[in-house]
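Give me structure tokens for this 123-residue protein.
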Amino acid sequence: QVQLAESGGGLVQAGGSLRLSCAASGSIFSINAMGWYRQAPGKQRDLVAAITNGGSTTYADSVKGRFTISRDNAKNTVYLQMNSLKPEDTAVYYCTAGFTAAGIPGTNKYDYWGQGTQVTVSS
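Here you go.
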């Protein structure tokens, strides 16, 4: 089992920045990628960004150039730096981790999920 602990959400004005953190613990040898999804009210949960153990990254088109995913392997922690935030970025952000050949976790029923952290961007 892998446990994921998220932090860093909050309320920010449009144009501002936030950094989300996700610390993994437990059987971390069983995962090779971590990432972030988000879900706005009434919408599906969508991938925001993902990063593999080797450092390869994937981003949703809507956040490219504004968000940066990174990881600290020594701390088993993944970060999502969010800049130039827009009201449409408002959502609950979920951390996910798993073992994936495609480098994008969160698509397998055996993947792990955090409980989510709210990000609200005011206009």
